């Protein structure tokens, strides 16, 4: 393997980006696979952990890892997502013209560098032949620049800026105080609870002019926001795209949204993966067949999957995976393949049942096929000073691991409502989008609810399946109907196990906390204890809808 460090890529505006080039040690021309990332191309994770660069070179590819504009070795000024479309176009065409390139280019990478692929593909560079966006998004500001009626993933953004972005930015400015930064990083999980987020102390101290504050205060220029949203542009995309997502990844809804918007040839793989690792371990559970021998064709691993994908579109070789959609079914620990994204043949309804205090410690409520016969309010305490903690699932915040966990201990909190079914007489395969209709009442104009579906085993342990956080503007002290998506899943519940729904009015520090006064911890610091209500009964029947395969 021949290695060239910091190769210069001159963009059309004269700015120079730097890239590390890895290529076969021969005199031939080869297709190029490129990753464009903001996290330092020298990081070992991107050379041998996420995918194996040496194996891709051995398979006959030139592999290029490029620092995006304004990051690490590349010139220019960085602003999230702004330059990735035009720069990506230029970078693809630069790679195609390299003397050891055969003119065909593919792109790969996850998260932000999944977005750089979609942005480049939206511009239709003529040399781009295929992409492989993993755990990514087409609308990067979703959940941050929306209005105050919608929940904000403030903890996720704080974790990203402080944990992944700010150090290089400060070093380039010559203002890096390593000791001070180390203090904030070591104590980041605690700082995530500081509010208001829009004037967050750690970034205020380290970099008061950061784009962080434009985002948190919703001051990002509308033209930038509009241009960064690729969903419409992807409807005219033509290059083939290999999408991959994780059941325990915070970006799964965004990955699915991008996949659905994408109009080119496409394939989708979703495994029991987190944003941090694709080893088969996700939280307290190890899933067989998630790292090695993946898919119904038992492909060696994700590197081999990528090689087969690019071999097909850049070298005209056949692929083993014949179906477009490949899903790992948790609970049964096996892969299934489908011609399109599946959805259960029938929506099975379970009504929330019970009254007043419904934590697991108090016995909880029920999930049943029949409605309660009278209107019953279920008290859901919201104490901004002691919010329900983020735990497992799709968490992507410092100090919290994502994945599948036994959450039964969390469900004993007095501010968590719990509804549990009777033991199932036969196994149940939930396949597709889980939905809910909730009747509730709030003391202020904002109603918050975190909802999670879990499976309870014979020993009483509850294992999370899918979840979401929902905020809606309502009339205070008046019942309101809310319809929401709980999440997409492919999960088999074992016979003898029980289904469980738990509800709470907070999930911190992943999301901003409702202060019960019309504000949240995104813009304010002080709130008050209050009680929301969830209803059951003949007319106000809160329910969960499971897409079930028979």
From TrEMBL:
One of its GO terms (molecular function) is hydrolase activity. Keywords: Hydrolase. Residues 307-545 form the Xaa-Pro dipeptidyl-peptidase C-terminal domain. This is Hydrolase. It comes from Salimicrobium humidisoli. The lineage of its organism: Bacteria, Bacillati, Bacillota, Bacilli, Bacillales.
């Amino acid at each position: 393997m021949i290695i060239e460090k910091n190769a210069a890529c001159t963009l059309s505006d004269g700015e120079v980006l730097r890239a590390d080039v890895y290529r076969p040690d021969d005199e031939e021309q080869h297709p190029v696979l490129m990753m464009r990332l903001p996290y330092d191309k020298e990081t070992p994770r991107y050379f041998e952990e996420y995918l194996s660069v040496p194996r891709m070179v051995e398979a006959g590819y030139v592999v290029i890892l490029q620092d995006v504009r304004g990051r690490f070795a590349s010139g220019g000024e960085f602003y999230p997502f702004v330059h990735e479309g035009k720069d990506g176009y230029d970078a693809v065409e630069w790679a195609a013209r390299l003397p050891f390139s055969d003119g065909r280019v593919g792109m790969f990478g996850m998260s932000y560098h999944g977005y750089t692929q979609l942005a480049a593909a939206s511009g239709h560079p003529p040399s781009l032949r295929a992409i492989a966006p993993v755990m990514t998004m087409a609308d990067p500001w979703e959940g941050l620049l929306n209005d105050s009626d919608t929940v904000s993933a403030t903890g996720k953004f704080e974790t990203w800026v402080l944990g992944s972005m700010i150090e290089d930015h400060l070093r380039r400015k010559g203002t890096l105080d390593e000791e001070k930064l180390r203090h904030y990083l070591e104590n980041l999980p605690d700082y995530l609870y500081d509010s208001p987020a829009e004037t967050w102390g750690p970034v205020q101290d380290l970099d008061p002019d950061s784009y962080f504050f434009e985002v948190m205060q919703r001051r990002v220029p509308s033209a930038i926001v509009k241009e960064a949203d690729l969903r419409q542009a992807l409807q005219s995309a033509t290059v083939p795209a290999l999408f991959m997502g994780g059941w325990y990844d915070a970006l799964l809804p965004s990955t699915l949204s991008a996949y659905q918007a994408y109009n080119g040839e496409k394939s989708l793989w979703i495994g029991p993966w987190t944003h941090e690792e694709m080893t088969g371990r996700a939280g307290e559970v190890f899933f067989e067949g998630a790292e090695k021998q993946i898919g119904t064709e038992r492909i060696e691993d994700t590197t081999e999957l990528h090689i087969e994908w690019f071999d097909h579109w850049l070298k005209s070789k056949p692929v083993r995976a014949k179906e477009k959609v490949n899903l790992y079914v948790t609970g049964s620990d096996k892969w299934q393949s489908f011609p399109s994204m599946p959805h259960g043949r029938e929506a099975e309804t379970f009504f929330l049942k019970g009254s007043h205090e419904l934590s697991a410690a108090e016995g909880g409520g029920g999930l049943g096929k029949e409605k309660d016969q009278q209107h019953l309010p279920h008290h859901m305490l919201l104490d901004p000073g002691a919010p329900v903690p983020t735990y497992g699932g799709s968490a992507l915040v410092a100090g919290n691991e994502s994945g599948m966990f036994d959450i039964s201990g969390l469900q004993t909190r007095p501010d968590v409502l719990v509804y549990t079914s009777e033991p199932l007489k036969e196994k149940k395969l939930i396949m597709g989008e889980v939905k809910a209709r909730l009747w509730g009442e709030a003391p202020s104009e904002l109603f918050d609810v975190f909802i999670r579906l879990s499976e309870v085993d014979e020993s009483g342990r509850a294992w999370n399946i899918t979840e979401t956080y929902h905020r809606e503007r309502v009339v205070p002290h008046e019942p309101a109907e809310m319809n929401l998506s709980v999440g997409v899943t492919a999960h088999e519940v074992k016979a003898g196990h029980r289904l469980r729904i738990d509800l709470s009015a907070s999930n911190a520090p992943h999301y901003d906390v409702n202060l019960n006064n019309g504000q949240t911890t995104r813009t304010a610091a002080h709130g008050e204890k209050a009680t929301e209500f969830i209803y059951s009964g003949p007319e106000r029947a809160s329910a969960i809808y499971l897409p079930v395969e028979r």
